[in-house]
Queue: 2 jobs
Job 1
Amino acid sequence: MNKYKNISRRKSDRIYVGTVPIGNNAPISVQSMTNTRTTNSFQTIQQILELQKFGADIVRVSIPNLEAAESFKVIKKKVRVPLIADIHFDYRLALKAVKYGADCLRINPGNIGNKKRISEIIKCVKDKNIPIRIGVNAGSLEKDILKKYSIPTPEALVESAMRHIEYFDALNFNQFKVSVKASNVFLAVEAYRMLGKKVTQPLHIGITEAGSLRNGTVKSSIGIALLLLEGIGDTLRISLAADPVEEVKIGYDILQVLGIRSRGVNFIACPTCSRQEFDVIKTVNQLEQKLEDVSTPIDVSIIGCIVNGIGEAKIATLGLTGGCKKSAIYEDGVRQKNKLNNEKIIEQMEIKIREKIKKINELKK
């Protein structure tokens, strides 16, 4: 997919979260997490269904108490996407989540408890063949590790992860993935680099508590892209203080830009200037909204004039090049006879894109 950089992925073991393969060159999966009250099963189900619609491969659900665990049982029956039960503090909630159908557990080494509690969790998941994520976080390291290093460091995050990996190894359990997240991009990236050299388990990557939609997107994009370019990462989550659907969209955008995995319409659009022959910004924004349901990968260029429009159109699946009153349309690099009326360009372009997607899908059959 990427002609200019051959990304050699880190070798890792294979596990499955539900039916989704993780590691050993499986497609890098995109995750998100619900931000509803889990006890409100209706709202949580609706949010998960929306995440499914936008291509989430896996969804994590927080289980902070027994009431939430009971609600998780209801939620699990109403959705098809694999669910990860997010567990902190009380190991018994992990046991409940497994009983109620969790496809994976996330436990936090900083608060899940002692070896005995971990042993109980391992025994439970082994019987059901359910994987675990060891989710280390810079904001909740074990007290002794934090005392040793004073502040969260890459070494501290990796030591926490390795401690629990050794617990798992001693219990002959290898169905797990690992994350070492921090809100500081450089701290997280270095921790993942160090961990990736020590273990063969799949790595779940992300920048935790990245921030608002704008700021968090920038942080996550830089951190995750740095890791992916080095071949590190088997599954990812963009952590934002925003609608979880945005996390999924941005996750796919990062993978698409790096030429790793594509989903939906990839718009190439000019920033506009006085030369534009139609309203490019309005056109691309409305088309992006109208075509959110599309999952078939397709490149579409929307350029307001002929300066770069022709060149971009020739390398896109579909290309629109601005002209006076009417604009030229290109398909697979070939200029078409019929032009689009600039006054109706959004409606006409949507039709063209959907027609092309239909052709692409028919050829796949």
Job 2
Amino acid sequence: MKTIEIDGSFGEGGGQILRTALSLSCITGNTLRLFNIRKARKKPGLMPQHLTCVNAISEICRAEVAGNEAGSAELTFTPGRIKSGDYFFDIKTAGSSSLVFQTLLPPLLWADKPSRITIKGGTHVPFSPPYNYIAEVFIPMLNRIGIKVEPSIIKYGFYPKGGGEVSFKIHPAGEIKGINLVSRGRLLSIKGLSAVSNLPGHIAERQKISAIQNLSPLPAEIDILEAPSVGQGTFVFLKGEYENVLSGFSSLGERGKRAEEVGKEAAYLFKDFHNTSACLDHNLADQLVIYLSLAKEGSAFTTSCITRHLITNLWVIERFLKIRYEMEGDLNSEGKIALRSN
């Protein structure tokens, strides 16, 4: 096996480079040397959430690791054999459980038996997909390409306390299928949640009313949820079901942010996507490309925005796998991506 060297300051330059590189190092068996980790960030190097990713994936594939310490800007990761099991990982902060899950999922698809991973940390925190997006949009789209994952949430976790807990049963993948998503079809429904934790119930009601008003004339069904958590928090999550695809958008409450603004924000994000002709929202496009790159057949999809994050992710994937991609459209604009084995 060879050593793959990755400059962590390339492109978007964030934690996604680390997560994708770790996943593909495990799958391919190639040693990873990653340098300039999160160089352009306000706090560069490995943060607690990233360390959880490194240490968790090291346990799953019995890796030899150097540089796995807080603030480290360089990491060497030599994977062993991927091992199925029942794993528990505690981020110990409000760091995103979703991002840790998305790091561990690809290699566990190559395990010999089903695995369960339970992660303690943030479930609805800034700059990461909330649990509802993972469970109701991302995983159902994975099911369509032959990947089976069963999600569950035990407790919600908000910034700054964290303390949420989620669990995923991951089945070994058979043959991963490609996709051809260039027409999303008509909108069938918008369903959602307006949630509060350890806060007055009228906040959830106001969020709901605001979301429905700002989605108009699109109809929506939004349920109220009292989310069990050790801290306080609120969110609105909206899922759009089209004939051929799912999409999801969310907004988090925070101190000083009115409930009406939380609902409005989620609604505007949904309508911005709906007003494009794209199949995949920009987050889903970014999250699916690693799995589509592991499929034997090619894929093509349209996305609401070709982000720097997506291009950086594809660049990392190209370092490990024999794939080629073609892009139609400009950065930060609606466009189309085609992937195929090289």
